[in-house]
Amino acid sequence: MARHIVNIVVIWVVLTVLGALVLTLDYLPVIGAEYSEEFDGIFRLLAFMGLPVLTFVFAWVGYSFFAFRQRTGESEGPAWWGRNWVPIAWLAVTASLAITVMIYPGLTGLAKLQADPRGYGWGETGADLVVKVTGFRWSWAFEYPEQGITVNAVQGRELVLPVDATVRFEVNSTDVVHSFWIPAFRMKIDAIPGRTTYMVVKPVATGSYAEDQAFRAQCAELCGLDHSKMVLPVRVVEREEFEAWVQQMKAQ
Ligand SMILES: [Cu+2]
After folding, report:
1. Distance of CA 28 to the CA centre of its chain
2. pTM recorded for the entire structure
3. Which residues surround ligand 1, an ion (CB under 5 A)?
């Protein structure tokens, strides 16, 4: 038995090292908004914490699959009962990991966002721009109440935002639950019929869908047949360009 355990531990360590190398790659989208780096840090931390658990299961199950398989002519062996401390230790380790991430970064991260006076949580806002978002099967509509313009989400339309401005999205749905998500901003909020939800974002980099697909508004809640087509381009531009776009939209 000791030989098998040594083998499994070796495979576990090798898989974990390989996984850790993959996790150090630059696989996350462009940093498009304030707090993006914090969210990336949290994502990387969770990935690193989950990696040894994943590789442990892979090593154990994969090794057992080959080492303890039933060979031709072999009868099934007697049932092998684990010692009591094994499941208890497994439960203790995985439960502690889960509880740890609920507290940090779960609770602590949320507290930091909610304490932001611009209303990243659900409080009042000091936003520079308000955009009303409506999700429907299967697209998005955007209204800029202060600018008096509406972007009907038909083909070719886009969500245009000024860089370095705090934008407050007021999100609704006309039919089912959708989820308003812009990968470059790392933010996501449910669009719920009959209720307004809020998302505050401050874009920190200009960019467009044409150059980088992380600049897109995408539904992230399976909502029916054309859910995957609920995508609209996002374009983050300089303040002057935004004003020009507003005038152009008004003239239409
Ligand atoms: Cu949807």
Report:
1. 10
2. 0.81
3. 178, 219, 223, 230
